[in-house]
């Protein structure tokens, strides 16, 4: 996994234990335009952002993009979320990570599996290539913590 400094975007087949810090030219970073239509506070407040811990992650068979996450969301049951980020991450590098998910979305079936939320990522363009970083938090934040 690379931070924004790893802006070449998609994962490579090389496995490196430690990567030197990469300086980026911020003039080459492009982000999507912000929405012109404002969302009222009550609508925004309906989204429940929670801290989740990745307990397991695997590629979804017959899918090039989807990863299946088994998450600890601070409740007694495990939450399954599918995310189309396989071109940026290998499943094993995400196990143990602390992330942010929207947890009150209705289940959505993808490839025959119910996805129970959405993981939050940052998407950007750098020097003509798309980049994506899954939002990861400090591991000391407990699963289930609410974000405001």
Describe this structure in words.
With about 150 residues, the chain is mostly beta strands. The protein has one domain (about 5-35, about 55-145): OB fold (Dihydrolipoamide Acetyltransferase, E2P) (Beta Barrel). The protein contains one helix and eleven strands, in the order βαββββββββββ. The chain has one helix at about 40-45; strands spanning about 30, 50-60, 65-70, 80-85, 100, 110, 115, 120, 120-125, 130-135, 145. The strands form three sheets. Strands 2, 3, 4, 5, 8 and 11 form a six-stranded antiparallel beta sheet that branches. A hairpin with a 7-residue loop joins strand 2 (about 50-60) and strand 3 (about 65-70). It is globular. The model is unreliable at about 1-10 (pLDDT under 50).
Write the layout of secondary structure elements.
Elements: E1 29-30, H1 41-45, E2 49-59, E3 67-72, E4 78-83, E5 98-102, E6 108-110, E7 113-115, E8 118-119, E9 121-126, E10 129-134, E11 146-147
């Amino acid at each position: 996994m690379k931070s924004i400094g790893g802006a070449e975007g998609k994962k490579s087949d090389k496995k490196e234990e430690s990567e030197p810090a990469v300086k980026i030219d911020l003039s080459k970073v492009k982000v999507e335009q912000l929405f012109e239509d404002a969302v009222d506070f009550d609508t925004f407040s309906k989204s429940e952002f929670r801290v989740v811990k990745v307990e397991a992650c695997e590629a979804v068979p017959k899918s090039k993009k989807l990863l299946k996450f088994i998450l600890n969301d601070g409740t007694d049951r495990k939450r399954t979320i599918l995310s189309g980020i396989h071109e940026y991450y290998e499943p094993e590098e995400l196990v143990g990570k602390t992330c942010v998910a929207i947890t009150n979305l209705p289940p959505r079936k993808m490839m025959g599996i119910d996805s129970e939320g959405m993981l939050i990522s940052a998407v950007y363009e750098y020097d003509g290539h798309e980049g994506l970083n899954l939002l990861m938090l400090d591991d000391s934040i407990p699963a289930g913590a609410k974000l405001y």
